[in-house]
Amino acid sequence: MKCVICKSSDIQMKIVEEEIKAGRDIVLIPMEVLVCLNCGERYYDRKAMRKIEELRDRLKRHDLEVEEVGKVFRAPAA
Ligand SMILES: [Zn+2]
Asked: Does pTM surpass 0.85?
């Protein structure tokens, strides 16, 4: 498989933290996905996509245990 962005064939399964938005909050989900080691592009298979959808639903229903790891701040427009 070649990266569609940079044409590199340096693609490996890696654990990444996927960001899922829940209202104004962001939930990090550690997931194993294919990542281009050259440009960082992530490739999601059907299973990963389904998992993200499922977690997004559970977040909406507040049916997912999460812990606070940081805060989100906003600065005035630059
Ligand atoms: Zn790439």
From this structure: no
Question: How far away, in angstroms, is 65 Cα from ligand 1 center?
Answer: 33
Structure tokens at 24: 């104004």
Residue 74 belongs to a domain? no
- Which residue matches tokens 């962005």? 5
Please give the tally of structural domains in the chain. Answer: 1
pLDDT profile of the chain (78 residues), mean per 10: 96 95 90 96 94 93 93 93
In a domain, 76, yes or no: no
In degrees, rounded to 5, the angle at the alpha carbon of residue 20 between the alpha carbons of residues 15 and 77 is 115
For residue 72, being part of any structural domain is answered with: no
Among the listed residues 25, 28, 21, 30, the one whose alpha carbon sits nearest the alpha carbon of residue 13: 30
Domain that includes residue 56, residue range? 11-60
CA–centroid distance, 63 to ligand 1, in Å, is: 35
